[in-house]
Amino acid sequence: MDKLIIQGGAVLRGDVWISGSKNAALPILSAALLSEGLVTIANLPHLQDVTTTIELLGTLGVTVSLDEKRRLEVNTSTLKSLTAPYELVKTMRASILVLGPMLARYGEANVSFPGGCAIGSRPVDLHLRGLEAMGATIEIEDGYIKARSDGRLKGAHILMDVVSVGATENIMMAAALAQGTTVIENAAREPEIIDLAKCMNTWGADVQGAGSNTITINGVDKMHGGYYKVMPDRIETGTYLAAAAATGGKVRTTQTDPSTMGAVLLKLEETGAIITQGDDWIELDMQGKRPKAISLTTAPYPAFPTDMQAQLTAVNAVADGVGTITETIFENRLMQVQELNRMGANIVVQGNTAVVTGVDKLKGAPVMASDLRASAALVIAGLVAEGETAVDRIYHIDRGYECIEEKLQLLGGKIKRVPG
Ligand code: UD1
């Protein structure tokens, strides 16, 4: 297994371009299944989860081709299977996002039941209940979700009792081709939901209200396809800015969207960073200072994202003072703590809160990535630690960060990948 070897101590400086958003790309790739006409998706990040989704489309018989600019053309007219197999779903829970579109367009979908994952049990009950409210029958058989619809799905009024990004997306996509109007109440408001809605509307759907907690989808007979460019990745943006803050550096993220970054920028400013921004860039200048400890609680957008919590734990680990990081979305998402403590951090977990007392110095150590964002935290810690850090199991990082070592090298980070 590949490892990342980091020599700590470099202060990050310079510009780094931001890739397309993983969490927008995955539902958009699934939404391609709704379209009768040709679909072209641009700004797809080169990531394992995107490759897995493209492979999944291929398994369904869909024709996909990447052009020289990494734009993906998707032609669904060759589809011949309605089953998302266990082998693919087990590697990526977001495969569940093909359920709604396949069911809506073809009246049938079989998706292997996604299991739990390291960060928590992550059920899919809300996805299934939403589809049932639209008239689908759903059975769980041999480890598969088997969804059927007698004719078109029917528009419904759906109140989600938990705010779920994935369930909102699945129901939105299913409703796009349903008969009549669907209203989703207590919908997730994440920017990736807005991006999916814009994309679907470009391809012929009628989705209104995305970005608010009530989304209205007027079902259409068919979607014609077209071109769509995926939004920039706000979590990747935040990760590079956090790395700059931890190292006392000055980094400008380019090709990004500051309007999606509110809560993260506020917290980074609280560390003492000076943040400036333009239409498509954000610069963080720590002016060589040590960050001040901050406290935060994760919650659905527009509050602080759970996907940035681990990275800010790493910043706090070397900050001046005591900060608390409280995780409210997933039950087991403070896994970075144990590994950070092995590097000399002083973090105590109390329930779903990590109490972080900043230390003067972290020490390089061999550490193990446990999930995507926890591994980003370990990379940040390795960049500030004294000596060498070896991050093992970096396939987690490759699921969400495009060219992470190249991008950090460009900023002056001493990091390399060694094949294992
Ligand atoms: C998405 C993101 C992930 C992010 C998360 C929360 C993608 C591909 N992934 O994951 O990076 O960390 O949003 O912002 O976009 N829940 C239920 N029943 C369900 C569905 C969810 O109880 O049917 C619960 C989950 O266990 C969790 C909470 O709802 O506690 C939020 O999860 P959800 O928003 O659905 O996360 P994902 O869409 O899986």
SSE blueprint and pairings:
Layout (H helix, E strand, L loop, with lengths): L2 E5 L5 E5 L4 H10 L7 E4 L5 H12 L3 E4 L5 E4 L7 E2 L1 H4 L9 H8 L1 E5 L12 H9 L3 E5 L2 E5 L8 E3 L5 H12 L4 E5 L5 H12 L4 E2 L5 E5 L7 E4 L4 H14 L2 E5 L7 H9 L3 E4 L3 E5 L10 E2 L11 H9 L4 E5 L9 H7 L3 E5 L2 E5 L8 E3 L3 H13 L3 E5 L2 H4 L5 H7 L3 E5 L2
Helix pairs in contact: 1-2, 1-7, 4-6, 5-6, 6-7, 8-10, 8-12, 10-12
Give an overview of the whole structure.
The chain has 420 residues and is of the alpha/beta class. The chain is built from 14 helices and 24 strands. It has helices at residues 22-31, 48-59, 86-89, 99-106, 125-133, 165-176, 191-202, 234-247, 262-270, 309-317, 336-342, 372-384, 395-398, 404-410, and strands at 3-7, 13-17, 39-42, 63-66, 72-75, 83-84, 108-112, 137-141, 144-148, 157-159, 181-185, 207-208, 214-218, 226-229, 250-254, 274-277, 281-285, 296-297, 322-326, 346-350, 353-357, 366-368, 388-392, 414-418. A four-stranded mixed beta sheet has the order 22-23-1-24. A hairpin with a 2-residue loop joins β8 (137-141) and β9 (144-148). α8 (234-247) runs parallel beside α10 (309-317). The longest helix has 14 residues, at 234-247. The termini are close together. The mean pLDDT is 96. Uridine-diphosphate-N-acetylglucosamine is lined by residues 23, 26, 94, 120, 122-127, 162, 164-167, 188, 192, 305-307, 329-330. Uridine-diphosphate-N-acetylglucosamine binds next to α1, α5 and α6.
